[in-house]
Amino acid sequence: MEVKNVWYNHGLNQALMRKSNTDKLSTIYLFKAEYDEKFRYRSKSTLKQQLKQKACRLMSPCSSPMNLWRWLMDFVPVLQWLPKYNWKTDTLHDIIGGLTIGVMHIPQSIAYAILAGTDPINGLYTSLFPVFFYMFFGTSKHASVGSFAVASIMAGFASNEIIQQQSEMSNTIIMNNTITSLTYVEVTTTLAFTTGIVELAAGIFQLEFLTAYFSDTLVSGFITAAAVHVVIAQLDGFFGFTAPKFNGIGYLFKRIYSILTHIPQMNFYTFKMSIFGVIFLYLGKSFMTPFLNKHLPFNVPVPYELFLVSLL
């Protein structure tokens, strides 16, 4: 049975009293559950109980072989859907989808490798492994995983900063006169390996609930900012010259200023090809694809990126 008129000391006089229309103070009485919900109050015993429940949930797979098998099937979804896979009706569609995604990943992975500061061939290597592992651990039939522009830019910035720090160290006096020169591939590989360990630990401890705290405003702002960073990072290649890279606060404005000062040095042939590529992709995806889908009985996936690379 709930106890009425439960009073708390911290700030209750201001929270539970208000003025009426006659400028007289009137007292508001709250149940304990109402007070806890309104002021988000949780006692120490409640927090301790929740932590205990989470610990028991994490240890529940080890309680019995059946629970361990269920946890393994949830953690590796391929054990669930592969025995139920319809080979007669789905094989051809999956092959077509795989070929389409593979064709799309070719120019995409090359561009992301350039953003990361590595050779373009490394982008082709890294585009294979995410898709392969997602086959075992993924839960969506329609997702296409792979390189990400923002992650590539962040990896490029981190690699550039580490390489610069090492070059500064090489100019100083080293006691044993031995220093190993790092490459962008080594730095990005170490960074990717460390990130994978963190993501694997997050998956084991079921930390996906943290994404519930990401509001729509935060996500949309992040996507817009990421698009701006990606465009600015590729502007020098768009004009056909190489602008210096910057790190730290305000680097984006420094890079824009550097690109503007280097415009007289741009390569007009590269600039014309870039303009043609942008127009070709825009017309294809905005007009040609809707036209084909409207007049054909089935949707036709057109790899405009591959056509563009072949033309250029």
UniProtKB/TrEMBL annotation:
<keyword id="KW-0812">Transmembrane</keyword>
<dbReference type="Pfam" id="PF00916">
    <property type="entry name" value="Sulfate_transp"/>
</dbReference>
<feature type="domain" description="SLC26A/SulP transporter">
    <location>
        <begin position="93"/>
        <end position="309"/>
    </location>
</feature>
<dbReference type="GO" id="GO:0055085">
    <property type="term" value="P:transmembrane transport"/>
</dbReference>
<dbReference type="InterPro" id="IPR001902">
    <property type="entry name" value="SLC26A/SulP_fam"/>
</dbReference>
<dbReference type="InterPro" id="IPR011547">
    <property type="entry name" value="SLC26A/SulP_dom"/>
</dbReference>
<dbReference type="GO" id="GO:0016020">
    <property type="term" value="C:membrane"/>
</dbReference>
<protein>
    <submittedName>
        <fullName>Sulfate_transp domain-containing protein</fullName>
    </submittedName>
</protein>
<feature type="transmembrane region" description="Helical">
    <location>
        <begin position="266"/>
        <end position="284"/>
    </location>
</feature>
<keyword id="KW-1133">Transmembrane helix</keyword>
<keyword id="KW-0472">Membrane</keyword>
